[in-house]
């Protein structure tokens, strides 16, 4: 009996264990199913909420666009004030015919619509703009006429009379611009400078042999004594007339003691105007000189060119001078 009892007890324990394990496993499975269903529900709710938020965000973006487009222009700040950084006293800043004035000193440039490298203002947005321009004519310049230009068309002018000391002209103009349209200031009449003069020479001497020069060489005088109007370029040796008028040029040169005779020509645009001669070794320290007066149009060039001879005395012995006698009257 003890054996039988023992078997029954063991069976009952096994049965209970089996039942308990079975029940335990069944409870956990149901719990997992419930958790998954709950998570699915939460995910679906979050997805729906996300879709709602995306719709609301799109609506807000649309409202911002509408508000931005409807803002008064004062909220989209565009403004600039510019001027020249130098004065050049009585002679003013040189400007040529039809030149766009490039004001290099930028005081204010809200919206970065003014470009100092070109002198052009480009409207960043469409709207009504006001431009104010004031200009003073130099004492030694011709009458000054500047135009406010929109897309190559003059829309207003500033005029100053050179016969009135420190005369100023000014204007204010209001105009509608579409985004991308450009406005600038352009010279119409006057030159900004009337005093034009230069005196140049060589900085070295080189003694008895002088400064060597080659056949047909343009003499590049590197020592600038005077250069009113900055019309002489030491890099090229060329004078370029900044304005039309009557000019006078003077050239004096000495040939070195130990070189052949020297011939130099004053040349205008490749054409010889006049020539000087110096003996060289046959007449030590001989000098030749000439002076010529000629009318030049703006942009025409004058220089000194070797015709014959292999050297020229430098320093004070060879000097080239030119100056404006009378500027042409504006048409």
Question: Can you tell me about this structure?
Answer:
This protein has 331 residues and is an alpha+beta fold. It has 2 domains: 113 residues, Jelly Rolls (Sandwich); 131 residues, Jelly Rolls (Sandwich). It is 21% helix and 40% strand. The protein has a 5-stranded antiparallel β-sheet with strand order 3-4-9-6-7, with no helix packed on it. The radius of gyration is 44 Å and the shape is elongated. Keywords: Coiled coil, Secreted, Signal. InterPro entries: C1q_dom, Cerebellin_Synaptic_Org, Tumour_necrosis_fac-like_dom. This is C1q domain-containing protein.
Approximate shape: elongated
* Radius of gyration using CA atoms only: 44 Å
Main sheet: which strands, in order across? Answer: 3-4-9-6-7
Element-level helix/strand string: HEEEEEEEEEEEEEEEEEEEEE
Helicity, in percent?
A: 10-25%
N/C terminus separation: 146 Å
Count of DSSP strands: 21
Structural class: alpha+beta
Subcellular location: Secreted
Main location: secreted
Domain C1q: 73-190, 191-331
Keywords: Coiled coil, Secreted, Signal
């Amino acid at each position: 009996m003890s054996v039988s009892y023992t078997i029954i007890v063991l069976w009952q324990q096994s049965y209970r264990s089996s039942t308990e394990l079975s029940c335990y496993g069944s409870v956990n499975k149901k719990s997992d199913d419930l958790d998954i269903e709950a998570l699915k529900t939460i995910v679906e709710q979050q997805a729906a909420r996300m879709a709602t938020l995306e719709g609301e965000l799109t609506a807000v973006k649309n409202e911002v666009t509408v508000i931005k487009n409807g803002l008064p222009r004062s909220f989209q700040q565009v403004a600039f004030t510019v001027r020249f950084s130098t004065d050049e006293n009585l002679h003013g800043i040189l400007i040529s015919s039809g030149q766009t004035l490039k004001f290099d000193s930028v005081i204010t440039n809200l919206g970065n619509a003014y470009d100092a490298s070109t002198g052009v203002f480009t409207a960043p947005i469409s709207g009504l703009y006001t431009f104010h321009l004031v200009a003073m004519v130099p004492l030694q310049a011709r009458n000054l006429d500047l135009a406010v230009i929109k897309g190559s068309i003059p829309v207003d002018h500033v005029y100053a009379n050179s016969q009135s000391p420190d005369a100023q002209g000014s204007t204010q103009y209001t105009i509608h611009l579409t985004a991308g349209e450009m406005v600038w200031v352009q010279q119409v009449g006057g030159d900004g400078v009337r005093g034009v003069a230069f005196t140049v020479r060589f900085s070295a001497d080189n003694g008895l042999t002088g400064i060597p020069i080659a056949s047909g060489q343009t003499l590049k005088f590197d020592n600038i004594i005077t250069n009113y109007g900055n019309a002489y370029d030491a890099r090229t040796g060329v004078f370029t007339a900044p304005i039309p008028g009557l000019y006078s040029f003077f050239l004096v040169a000495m040939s070195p003691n130990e070189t052949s005779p020297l011939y130099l020509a004053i040349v205008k645009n490749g054409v010889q105007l006049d020539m000087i001669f110096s003996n060289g070794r046959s007449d030590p320290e001989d000098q030749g000189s000439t002076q010529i007066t000629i009318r030049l149009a703006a942009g025409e060039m004058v220089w000194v060119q070797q015709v014959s001879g292999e050297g020229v005395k430098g320093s004070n012995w060879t000097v080239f001078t030119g100056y404006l006698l009378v500027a042409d009257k504006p048409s």
